[in-house]
Amino acid sequence: MEADPLSEFDALLASADVDDTEEDDLVQTLASSRTGRGWVIGSVLSAALGVVLVAAALVAASLSPRPDPDPTSYVAAELSGTTPRPDPRQTPYAAPSQQHERPLTDLVDENWVAELSDDTSIPVRALIAYAGASLVATSEYPACGLGWNTLAGIGHVESEHGTIHGSHLGADGVARPAIIGIPLTGETTEAIRDTDAGMLDGDAVWDRAVGPMQFIPTTWAQWGADGNGDGIRDPQNIDDSALAAARYLCDVGGDLTVADNWIAAIHAYNPTIEYNNRVADAAAYYAGRG
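C-alpha cells predicted for Putative secreted protein (290 residues):
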C-alpha cells in the first residue's frame, strides 16, 4: 500500500505548536498536489556533453508565477570593529571531509546552465553549484535521487541564492559580503551558544547560521564540504555549501523520490511548516522550468 505523504508530515509536526489556520493551509497545499498536479518526481535532463542531471524532488505544487522569498531572519554581515570578522580559511574546518575528483564547475554543461538561468532567474554561479552538487550526490548516494531543484529551493529560501541584502556571488563562488544569520539567542530560535569562537560567524557569544545555504557552525564542522577543489571548506562558498547540503539531505533522507523522505529531509534542515512549504513551492517551480 502506498504511503500517504500527509502521515509522515503529521508525525513530524505532532509536537509542534501549530495553530488551526496554519495546519489547514498545509493540508490544503498537500491535498491539492495529490489530486491535481501532484508531487514532482524524477525529471531527468541530459546535457550536451553527456552529463546527466537528475532533478528528482518531491514538492507541493501550488505556485505563483515567481516564488516570493522573505528570508527576513538573515542579513548580509557588516560586522562591527569590536566583533571578530569571520574567516573560514583560518578555522579548524579547513580540511575537506570527503574528496571528489573534479570541481563542481567542471561537471555541468555551460549552455544548459545559461538557458536555465534565463528561465528561472537563478544566478548562473549558484545554478552551477546546485547542479554540480546534485551530480556528486547522485554518484555518492545512488539511491538518493536528489535533484538540483531541491538545492535551488533551499538556496532561494535561505539567501535568495547568495544575493540577500546586497550580497553577491563572485566568479569564485564566494558570497560577498559574508552572509551571517541572526544570533541564536533563543528568543525566536533555538538557543545555541558559541561553538566556534566566532571563527565562522564573527560572534564569540552566540552561534549564527552562515553562508548561502545557512549552516550553523556545529553542522558545518560535521558536514562542511570542498566543492571547488581548493582544499578548503568555506561555508560562504556556494560550491562548498551546496555540496554539503546535498550530502546532508541524502544522508538524513535516504531516497528523496519518496514523498515522506523528502519532507523529513527538509524538516531536518529547518523544522517548520512554513519552511517546508516554501522550499517545496520553489523547488516545484524550478522543476517546471528545467
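The chain has one domain: 5-289.
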